[in-house]
Write a structure and sequence with these properties.
With 307 residues, the chain is an all-alpha fold. The protein is 73% helix and 0% strand. The radius of gyration is 19 Å and the shape is globular. The N and C termini lie far apart (45 Å).
Length: 307
């Protein structure tokens, strides 16, 4: 049972976790099932069909395996086969443990995210949110709310995104014995989100004000690990307000392994008339093995461009 739960939690983090302020992916556990690592590498190598075959072979031996069902569904989402993917997630949701069910529901939420469906994503994220609420895990509740908000933002539902980012912020602040650094982190995330929403709405002044507020929080030095997300935010705002040169300069300082960053760089090059560079970055984004909000936006978008 301990092995099952550990593997389930591994999948929860590996495929679904991406709820840091802008583009960060939460660190996965040190040990991952070997078939998961092999499948991820196959996807990076541009062989998703072989990864799927590997996962299905595992399921022949253990058809009710939560990790294997989530893995199979995740690669199907990356292939644009969401309806088929959700059959695997539905099986995973029959898991014997609350942790397994929660991992499957979160994966189901991401499946709809790959289709840009904010409403259905929230339907399942709400269940995950409630699970952590029952455990009085306010920090994780906040993370889930931010994850749902991120999907809605990327799908263009700005009102839903704003609502859920605020829920995430306010819930996160309910952490018992909240330290000043944690409050700063939640405040940084909210300013970060507000900047992106303003940029989408074309309000350049408001976006810049929120970027400045986010920077001021980072300048306190209470969350130094968040510093790399500032150029990502600046590049995001620059892109959505039409300054593609600045976007490329800022995004070059962000996480180059993040599929959303890769996709944004590709779009910036495309808007700048540099098609070959754009295609280079679209190919990188399209090969992401992740099953999280970053990939949910970037992979389908990049694949359409490559067609």
């Amino acid at each position: 049972m301990k092995t099952f739960v550990a593997a389930t939690i591994c999948i929860l983090f590996l495929f679904c976790a991406s709820v840091m302020p802008l583009f960060a992916q939460m660190p996965g556990p040190q040990q991952q099932p070997e078939f998961i690592k092999q499948g991820q590498q196959l996807i990076r190598d541009g062989k998703p069909e072989e990864a799927l075959a590997l996962y299905r072979q595992t399921l022949k031996e253990t058809p009710n395996s939560t990790p294997a069902n989530i893995a199979a569904g995740s690669v199907l989402d990356s292939m644009g086969k969401g309806e088929e993917a959700r059959k695997y997630f539905a099986i995973a949701m029959l898991a014997d443990t609350p942790e397994g069910k929660t991992a499957a529901k979160r994966a189901m939420a991401m499946s709809y995210a790959f289709e840009g469906n904010c409403g259905k994503t929230i339907e399942y994220e709400q269940q995950v949110f409630d699970f952590y609420g029952g455990a009085k895990n306010f920090s994780q509740q906040g993370e889930i709310a931010d994850e749902a908000a991120r999907v809605c933002l990327d799908s263009g539902d700005l009102d839903a995104a704003s609502k859920w980012y605020n829920i995430g912020h306010d819930t996160g602040l309910k952490e018992p014995d909240l330290k000043p650094a944690r409050k700063d982190l939640w405040d940084f995330r909210l300013e970060n989100a507000a900047a992106r929403i303003a940029a989408h709405r074309g309000d350049k002044m408001a976006a810049r004000q929120h970027v400045a507020a986010a920077k001021a929080i980072l300048d306190k030095g209470t969350n130094p690990e968040q510093a790399p997300f500032l150029p990502a935010l600046q590049g995001y705002v620059a892109f959505y307000t039409g300054d593609y040169k600045s976007a490329l300069e800022d995004l070059s300082k962000a996480n180059q392994n993040d599929s959303f960053i890769q996709c944004l760089i590709a779009q910036s090059y495309e808007k700048s008339g540099e098609k070959e560079k754009a295609m280079e970055y679209y190919r990188k984004a399209a090969s992401s093995p992740s099953h999280n909000p970053a990939a949910a936006y970037a992979v389908p978008f990049a694949k359409k461009k490559l067609q």
